[in-house]
Write a structure and sequence with these properties.
By secondary structure, the chain is α/β, with parallel strands linked by helices. It folds into 2 domains: about 25-250, no CATH class; about 350-590, P-loop containing nucleotide triphosphate hydrolases (Rossmann fold), CATH 3.40.50. The chain is built from 24 helices and 12 strands. It has helices spanning about 20, 25-40, 45-70, 75-95, 100-120, 125-145, 150, 170-190, 195-205, 205-210, 215-240, 250-265, 270-285, 295-310, 315-325, 390-400, 420-425, 445-450, 465-480, 495-505, 525-540, 550-555, 575-580, 580-590, and strands spanning about 155-160, 245, 350-360, 365-375, 380-385, 405-410, 415, 430, 510-515, 545, 560-565, 570-575. Strand 6 and strand 7 (about 415) form a beta hairpin. The longest helix is centred in the middle third of the chain and has 27 residues, at about 215-240. The structure holds adenosine-5'-diphosphate and magnesium ion (MG).
């Protein structure tokens, strides 16, 4: 499978041109649109619609980030929009402050509120998160209505100021369009940044994200805060555009409108957000002629939105891109370049992992009970035992997915017993899962890049995208999947998905690699390939703790074996001696 290495020389021009340069055509097109917005002759009605669409789209971009990229629900976007709008409204009128100052202050206030809300609630997740954002939204609305001394209450704030340079509504619109173009560009490229990849990882598989080194809570808070920031900017622009704000413009119903816009257009991309926003503002205008028949207008409006979402679950843009397949961000196939080097840290002592008195109880069930394991540097150590004996639970406690009930875990001299998964990854722990956990909406290469990005991977400088890609390609080539780097996970067989998961772990250059039944579900030829692969990994001196049922593999590959039964360690030592141990024989074959 592996190509001869002379074909894999690194091209000189591997480092890509800066994004801004590559996307000059985008900015030229945007400049033309801005110029048109500034110079075309609109009547007041069209101007208002354009102003609304532009400022709303900025807020909907926020939902692209939090919901589309990070998979977190935010039903309070209108509240953040309101923060931006009210700070500009009150600031430019009651306090006579500069519009720009108020715009920035409002956006920052929204950012802070978003971060706070995120920090206090994101650990809840799912329905609870939705409920809390709704409550927050309702509280903000109540404050807008009732804190009359500050917000002018239900009457709202009028005669809101604009910057001196952009006094006419149309010049201000042109500015908003320019802002939209810049923000849209940033949101469009967010998925390919470190933060964006982390967000997608969290959305696709939160557990795996933590284990490969993503600080899940921080990433969610960042997504929430960014979403709120865009809400605040949109709101500030909205207040300047219409010169009037009132509480009903920022109600829960408006949050639902923002959400519908995002879902309608396609929440995964800012293009979808822009399409959805435009449509949801235009449909009511198109249906205006129905307004004479009470009820009919709302019925048709609601029905058309439901139909679009029902038949295009990924939104209109998702539908279009699926149809044009591969139209989505086409990525050039990077060269595989240098072979994968595993350079396990040689700093610590003889033992890489020292587990003492480890226990994990689920209620009354002692899944792991007072287990000691010592893994020697540079060796392959097998953890075996019948089904249900606590092997996976042990690995889950080691990697921080479960808290230990008792005991201590030392990794390379560091006590990691109470660390969350991402810090253990940073300390050098890598793993694969018994049930494969890949980031399913991403390509093989992207999955492995996220592995290579592990904080603490000393082989790669922070932010060095070229080195990251290089490393990920080398890892994929190492497991024999280099030529398929740009395919989505769903197009790989089960066995190959396993290999991608191993490549993801290898790219991270871990000090200790935990493998949970890597051969499970593979056919016999795939097992042989895996066997070869493990030998090649071990030959590079990487320390491995492997769970496996295949006694041939275990006895050939591992120098040391620990045996569990009913959560207890029943044998431990040099491979051959352990496999002949009477307790081990009876645990596997039954007594006598
Ligand atoms: P193995 O990997 O050795 O087959 P496991 O570690 O998966 O075994 O399971 C050990 C025992 O712990 C089993 O009895 C299993 O039912 C139980 N167990 C594992 N995870 C949980 C959990 N999250 N909650 C409750 N019981 C669990
Ligand atoms: Mg298991």
């Amino acid at each position: 499978m592996s190509a001869p290495s002379e074909n894999l020389a690194i091209p000189a021009a591997l480092r890509p041109k800066p994004l801004l340069l590559r996307h000059l055509p985008y900015f030229i097109a945007a400049a033309i649109v801005v110029f048109a917005a500034a110079t075309m002759r609109f009547d007041g009605y069209v101007l208002n619609i354009l102003m609304q669409a532009t400022t709303f789209a900025v807020a909907v971009f926020g939902l692209t980030v939090v919901l589309g990229l990070c998979g977190q629900i935010n039903l309070a976007q209108a509240a953040f929009f309101g923060f931006g709008a009210y700070v500009v409204g009150i600031g430019t009128t009651d306090y006579q402050l500069s519009f720009w100052l108020c715009l920035v202050a409002g956006a920052l206030l929204a950012l802070a509120a978003g971060a706070l809300l995120g920090m206090s609630t994101l650990k809840l997740g799912g329905h609870y998160l939705a409920m809390v954002t709704i409550s927050f939204q309702q509280i903000v609305t109540l404050v807008m209505i009732n804190a009359i001394w500050l917000t002018h209450g239900p009457d709202g704030v009028s005669r809101i100021g604009r910057p001196a340079l952009l006094q006419s509504q149309q010049s201000f619109l042109a500015f908003c369009v320019a802002a939209l173009a810049v923000i849209g560009y940033l949101v469009w490229h967010l998925p390919d940044t470190r933060l964006g990849r982390a967000m997608r990882a969290v959305r696709d598989n939160e557990l795996a994200a933590g284990v490969v080194g993503v600080d899940v809570v921080r990433v969610k808070v960042a997504a929430f805060a960014l979403s709120a920031l865009l809400g605040g900017i949109g709101g500030g622009l909205f207040a300047g555009g219409f010169a009037y704000v009132s509480p009903d413009q920022f109600s829960f119903a408006e949050s639902i409108v923002f959400l519908t816009m995002a879902l309608l257009g396609g929440v995964a991309s800012p293009i979808g957000a822009a399409i959805g926003t435009g449509l949801l503002i235009l449909i009511p205008e198109w249906l205006r002629f129905l307004k004479s028949v009470p009820g009919l207008y709302l019925a048709i409006y609601g029905l058309s939105v439901i139909l679009i979402i029902r038949y295009m679950p990924d939104g209109i843009w998702g539908f279009v891109t699926a149809g044009l397949d591969r139209f989505r961000r086409k990525v050039k196939m990077p060269a595989a370049g240098l072979p994968l080097v595993l350079a396990p840290a040689m700093t610590g002592g003889e033992m890489v992992l020292e587990v003492t008195g480890l226990a994990k109880h689920f209620g009354g069930l002692k899944a792991v009970d007072n287990v000691d394991i010592a893994v020697r540097r540079g060796g392959v150590h097998a953890l075996i035992g019948p089904n249900g004996s606590g092997k996976t639970t042990t690995l889950n406690v080691l990697s921080g997915l479960y808290n230990a009930t008792a005991g201590k875990v030392m990794l390379d001299g560091t006590d990691v017993t109470t660390m969350p998964p991402h810090l253990r990854a940073a300390a050098g722990l890598g793993r694969t899962f018994q049930n494969i956990r890949l980031f399913r909406s991403m390509t093989a290469l992207e999955n492995v890049i996220i592995g290579a990005e592990r904080p603490g991977n000393t082989l790669i400088g922070r932010g060095d995208e070229a080195a990251l890609t290089q490393r990920a390609m080398a890892a994929l080539a190492f497991v024999g999947l280099g030529p398929r780097a740009n395919e989505l996970i769903s197009s790989f067989s089960y066995g190959h998905q396993r290999l991608i998961e191993i490549a993801r772990a290898l790219a991270a250059n871990p000090t200790l690699l935990l493998l949970d039944e890597p051969a499970a579900g593979l056919n016999s030829s795939e097992k042989l390939e895996l066997h070869e692969l493990l030998k090649r990994i071990a030959a590079q001196g990487l320390t491995i703790l492997i769970i496996d049922h295949d006694m041939t593999l275990v006895s050939e590959a591992a120098q040391h074996i620990t045996v569990l039964n009913f959560g207890r360690r029943i044998a431990d030592g040099e491979s051959m001696a352990v496999l002949r141990h009477p307790d081990v024989v009876s645990a596997y074959l039954g007594t006598d």
